[in-house]
Amino acid sequence: MSNSTKNLLLRDLVILLFLAFIASGYYFFGDVLRPDLEEKRPGLVGQSSPDLVRKEGRDLSGEVVKPTELPTLPQYNGAPIGTVNEDKSVVLAYPEDVKTKLRNELLDIAKFVSESPDNLDNWLRAGVIKKFFGDYLGARDAWEYASLIRPQNSTSFANLGGLYALYLKDYPKAELSYKKAIENAPGDIYPYTALADLYSSSEPAGESRSNKIIKIIESGLAANPDNQTLLSYLARFYKEQGNFPKALEYYQKVLALDPHNKAVAAEIDALKK
Predict the structure, then answer these.
(1) Mean pLDDT, the chain, whole residue set
(2) For residue 142, which of 71, 88, 77 has the smallest C-alpha distance?
(3) Of the four listed, 4, 167, 177, 206, which is most buried by Cβ atoms within 10 Å?
(4) Where do transmembrane segments lie in this chain (predicted)?
C-alpha cells in the first residue's frame, strides 16, 4: 500500500473517531443541557397553581434534582362564585344595565377562578360584586378564601373587617380581620381608623373603650409617624372626650405639618378661647 493511500485511510479514521466523540458527548450531556419542563396547564380548585413543573433529573454535577411543584390550594367550599343572592332592596335604585354588566362580569370571574384559582384579584373582585348586590354571605366567602390563599395580603382582611362590622354585625371577627390587615400592611392607614371606629360603636362607653381607641391610633402613629389622618383622629377624639389640652396638642401637630389648613387653625383658635 502506498504512503498516500495510508494517509487517506488514517485521515478518514480520525474523522470517524471525531464524529463518534461528538455523538457520544451529546448522548451523555444533551438531556442535562436541554430544559425538561412540563407544559402549562390550567389550574383547578384543589390543584396546584398553573406553572412550570420540572421533572426529576440530574444537574451538571450529577446530583439528583427533585421535581419542583407548587403547594396544593385548599378547596373552596363557599357559595358558588357565578351566582348571586341578590337583595332587591339593596340594588333597587341601580339601573338594570349596570346590574346586568356586573352579573356578566361575575360569570367571567367564576370561569377564571375555576381555571386558575390562585388569583387574588379575582376573589377580591367577586366579593365586591356580591356585596354590591347585598349578597353579604357570598362576599364573605370570596374574601375569606382570598385570605386563605394569600394570608399576607391586607385588602381581603380590611374588606372582611368592614363587612363583619357594618353588615354581618359580628364584631369579634371584625376586630380580628382589622388587626390582621394592620399586621400585614402597617403602612395602610384605613384599618387603624376603622378599628377605632369599631371600638367606638361596639364597646360600652368608658375608660376601657377610650384606652382601646387611643392605643390603636397610637400604634398607627408608631408605624406612620406624623400621619395627618391619625393625628387628626386623635385630636377629634380628645376634643369629644373633653380633654382640650390633648386635643390642642394634636391639632397643633397637624397644623405644623399643614400650615395652610384653615379648618385645623380654626379648631386651635376655638380650643384656646
Answers:
(1) 82
(2) 77
(3) 177
(4) 12-29
Higher per-residue confidence, 170 vs 15: 170
CA distance linking residue 125 with residue 104, whole number of Å = 13
Q: Which helix (H) or strand (E) holds 64?
A: strand 64-65
Which phi and psi (to 5°) does residue 58 adopt? -130, 145
Which pLDDT band holds residue 64 (cuts at 50, 70, 90)? low
* Calpha distance 252→247 (Å, rounded): 9
Higher pLDDT, 36 or 116: 116
CB 82 within 8 A of CB 130: no
Taking the C-alpha atoms of residue 221 and residue 218, their distance in angstroms, rounded to an integer, is: 5
- Can you give the pLDDT at residue 62? 55
Q: Where are the domains positioned within the chain?
A: 226-273
Distances (CA, A) of 225 to 27, 57, 185, 258, 259: 64, 53, 15, 14, 17
What CA–CA distance (Å, rounded) separates 53 from 65? Answer: 12
Q: How many whole angstroms from its chain centre is CA 67?
A: 28
- Asked if residues 114 and 45 have their Cβ atoms less than 8 Å apart, the reply is yes
Q: Which amino acid is at 126?
A: A
Reply yes or no on whether the pLDDT at 251 is more than 70.
yes
Pick from 95, 98, 101, 151: which is nearest to 123 by CA? Answer: 151
Alpha helices in the chain (DSSP H): 3-33, 88-91, 96-115, 120-132, 136-149, 155-166, 171-184, 190-202, 207-223, 228-240, 244-257, 262-272
pTM reported for the whole predicted model: 0.74
Q: How far is CA 88 from CA 19, 74, 96, 102, 172, in A?
A: 79, 33, 12, 15, 29
| DSSP β-bridge partners for residue 48 | 72
